[in-house]
Amino acid sequence: MQAVIDSLFTPIGNDGLIGGLLILNGLKVTLMVTFFAIILGAILGVGTTLMKMSGKWYLTWPANLYVGIIRGTPVVIQLVILYFIVLSSLDVDKISAAIIAFGLNSGAYISEIIRAGIQAVDKGQMEAARSLGLSHGQTMKAVILPQALKNILPALGNEFIVLLKETAVIGFIGGVDLMRAGEIIRSRTFEDVVPLFTCALIYLILTYTFTFMLSRFEKRLKQSD
């Protein structure tokens, strides 16, 4: 018990910030990066899906290249390259760089999720709607996308949870997220168990909370059917 108190209430660094507050600040960074990155990823995912399904090579080719590069390289390498090389000449802070990097990464996966959800809808739905006089855009908006959303919702929820955990590598560019805060406390107090298990417990609580909220939302969608 004394080790827990010492780890969470010992001043860390020259500013006198105690370990517990450092973890809270790290948690705030983790949630902030995850929230804005998933929004950016959703926008990029929708745009990339539309490009891939446009049937025009000059749109399909760059979309496939983007998805292939992102899915074929580790997110930590993408983060480091973006911050230290691509954005090195710009005055971009670490949190913004992390949001961009994780947003780009998430966008590629969300694109594939959306594409798979749309293709899972029976083609007869499109043909029937078009035969009733609806345009392609009207059919996608009123018929295909609502059905695809229910198909892809679990996968989108999983992507959000995966993204939340992937943000633990922000420390590679010097950002102080939840995981990095635990590492700082561990290095300053020489106490390994409490800081690391505290971070693990917080991640566990967050993932279970979001999973529960997602399951409740899915049940409401099923009831609406």
TrEMBL record:
PROSITE patterns, sorted: ABC_TM1 (PS50928)
Function of the protein: Part of the binding-protein-dependent transport system for glutamine; probably responsible for the translocation of the substrate across the membrane.
Gene3D superfamilies according to UniProt: MetI-like (1.10.3720.10)
Keyword terms, alphabetized: Amino-acid transport, Cell membrane, Membrane, Transmembrane, Transmembrane helix, Transport
Biological processes, Gene Ontology terms: amino acid transport
Membrane topology (UniProt): Multi-pass membrane protein
Domain of life, per lineage: Bacteria
Occurrences of domain ABC transmembrane type-1 (ranges): 27-214
InterPro entries from the UniProt entry: AA_ABC_transptr_permease_3TM (IPR010065), ArtM/GltK/GlnP/TcyL/YhdX-like (IPR043429), MetI-like (IPR000515), MetI-like_sf (IPR035906)
GO cellular component, one term: ATP-binding cassette (ABC) transporter complex
One family name in Pfam for this protein: BPD_transp_1
Main localization of the protein described in the UniProt heading: membrane
Family affiliation: Belongs to the binding-protein-dependent transport system permease family. HisMQ subfamily.
Identification of the protein by name: Putative glutamine transport system permease protein GlnP
TM helices/strands, residue ranges: 29-51, 63-86, 193-214
Molecular function terms, GO-annotated: transmembrane transporter activity
Cellular compartments annotated: Cell inner membrane; Cell membrane
